[in-house]
Design goal:
heterodimer, A: about 450 residues, mainly alpha, globular, B: about 120 residues, two-stranded antiparallel ribbon
Chain lengths: ~450, ~120
Amino acid sequence: MTKEGLLEERIEEWRQYFRRRQTVSSVDVEELEDHLRSQVEALREAGLDEDEAFLVAVKRLGDLDSVSREFAREYSERLWKQLVVSPGAGASSRSAQRDTALAVGLAIAAAVALKIPELFGLRMHGTGANESFYLRNIGLLVLPFLAVFFALKRDLNRIGWCWLAVPFVAAASIANLLPFEPSGHTLVLTAIHLPVALWLAIGFAYAGGRWRGHEERMNFVRFSGEWFIYYTLIALGGGILIAFTVFIFHAIGLNAEPLVERWVGPCGAAGAVLIAAWLVESKQSVIESMAPVLTLLFTPLFAVLLLIFVATMIWTGNAIDVGREVLIGFDLLLVLVLGLLLYAISARDPQAPPGKFDVLRLLLVVCALLVDALALWAMVARTSEFGVSPNKTAALGLNLLLLVNLGWSAVLYARFLAKRVPFARLERWQTAYLPAYAVWAWIVAALFPIVFN
Amino acid sequence: MDIDKDLVAASATPLVLAILTEGDSYGYAIIKRVGEVSGGELQWTDGMVYPLLHRLERRGLVDAVWGRSETGRRRKYYRLTRAGAEHLTGQRRQWQLVDKAMRGVWLTVADPASQPG
């Protein structure tokens, strides 16, 4: 490489480094670059070689942090402006516009798709509503659009599209060909597990077909967490919108509730699935992820809660009263702890040495395992009182699945704290285990209706 | 010589505005000029002049336009506005007053550094 090329490369690096500072706009960087080049030229004329000139010029410009801080003081609004969707200039803004159009188009399509069955007399609300149909098909009416969104965004090839279609076709057959009793347990189980299975199938599109990759899987986990947060926020705003709609129409003597219930609510909920995904996609480089922040906040709180709970159980000698709801409750607790662990892992620098928070996380996981083990033990002890029902089997299966995941995580975490294994092992274990959940979701959704009917 | 940070900050605005009365200029040239007029004694952190220039622009004391350097590179030039010139006049009076007061006080107070040892 020529010397001239080397200088260009170093200036390019410097520019990239500066651009990451949100308070320094690209126009400012350009101005600073002109300064840097002028300085380098002057120093070279004074006899310095290129390397020296560059280093001296950068040094004279001042340390990056204080210069950006000075810019921040001048442009405090820039720190906030970044929170609005503001794509960069040029080509990237065109692709951002395309994404926006795609997301909005698909969101409308999802909202419309949700109402299409009504044309065939399958009513969602009111008397004669076919609740069973919507329970079984809700995921199928909305999630394909999300899959298409990512398939288009990632430029999935033709074979990829075919693979992507397989789970959706399978889900459609499961939901509509298997025998379900109108209000049976297996119907509810399928209604819960099919969307989960389809969501994981969307991971295939999200990863652009490279679903085996560790990084791709981790990114999908990150996406799922952020999506959940955005969706919750949108739902919150939607709730306020709906409340005001009802309120202002009520003020002029009109009842808007049927309209809201039949159209605004369901269509908004369906469209928001796409909009939330699009927001996560377009914001991922701009603001810090929310999930790890929430994780940081709640990990200590949940650790304390579980510690107190275990202590109370020991103190009072009260055993866990095991019913189906209790088991489902403990399943959810494990899911939550897994989430806290997963999002902490996803945001942690794998190179960082063990810290205080790592100990805390291990404590949280161990407490959760302990509590869950107590619940399972109580259940086994009274197993004769329970018959085998689809609900209990599903809850128990998920519990064991989570127990294995968290149990081995705890072992790896402990070994990491003892500096026996690198942190990456723990990450890889989490992503390697993801397909187990997909398999289980498909088993419950597809096999339980056959086995238990 | 190391000059107190507050003093640098206070003198930076009139210094930049005064340099701009000599004609339109840009960041690098302004810093070079500061070095010249102070005999190389006044050294600013180069990067800091840009937030200052932007602040002056926002206050309407200078105008900024993008132009080209001799080698064709994009470069941002600054020009003193009428408001800037007025501000500079006010600043000049204030500094002269301070300068006069300081001179008066230096005469009566001995400078330990200049005493022959």
